[in-house]
Write a structure and sequence with these properties.
The protein is α+β, with helices and mostly antiparallel strands. The protein has nine helices and twelve strands. A five-stranded antiparallel sheet has the order 8-9-7-6-10. Strands 3-2-11 form a three-stranded antiparallel sheet, with no helix packed on it. Strands 1-12 form a two-stranded antiparallel ribbon. The longest helix is centred in the C-terminal third of the chain and has 16 residues, at about 265-280.
Amino acid sequence: MQLSRLRSNVDLRPSVRVAVFLLALVLAPATVLAVPTGNYYEDSVGVYDDWAVCRTHGDGADGFLRYSGGVFEPVIAAESLGDNAHAAYLKGAHFVSLYPDPVVRAEAIFEYVRDNVRYLSDRSLFGYREFAQNADEVYSGIVEEGVSYGDCEDYAVLLGVMYIGAGLRSSIVLAPDHAATLVYVPDYQQANKILSVNGDRGWVWAEATGSNNPFGWMPERYMGVALQAYELKDEGLAPAPPTDKPVVSISRSSGSAFRLPVPPFFLIIALLWLISAVRRRRPV
């Protein structure tokens, strides 16, 4: 067989085996850690949290977006507002003293979320096609691991809650197959599109899902299409009464995105060493 001839021609001496091992170690993704995110309950419809919000779908009266009949209410955000205000809200409030100017404050919060959250699908993160996180859950990843992961609605909810905590008006906006955040900063002039919500002009699009996205940049594909916006209120969601639904353990995969544990320079050196070692065959 061709594979057998190849194996007989290439002498994998100990030095080569060491090189292969080191290269595999360099290229291997970082270890995936399981981080519990709270108490959840499951039935035939989906996975629910302590507020009786279904985390695995956004539609209907119990969905995390309560999307029904063409309107929606992102109740997942209310799990971190009002009486439920916790770490994400307080982090937003911390920006008030740091940045008295509301425009500068809005930019700083946007950059904080953009630079500390990485985009990852719910399937990769939780094993579900859809699984929404509340703002405190997304923020906990930043605190505990230095970086958090989520998809578009997770970014939107974290930004929205932090903006409310920072004394700014914010809205969650739904576009086709997408969610983002709007923040009300009527004095901001650098946005490529200024929007109106409920008659108030001065809302700016906050698209934090891209690492290079500037504050105020609205993707052109969402201009001229039907958008729906819901302005968040600093009101909490009441916890649900005890349930007899079976408890389910949900873990968040942490650090599953590809990362190099060494600088690229050392990777190149390892590759060159490996190529050189494989080419040097033992004399017959």
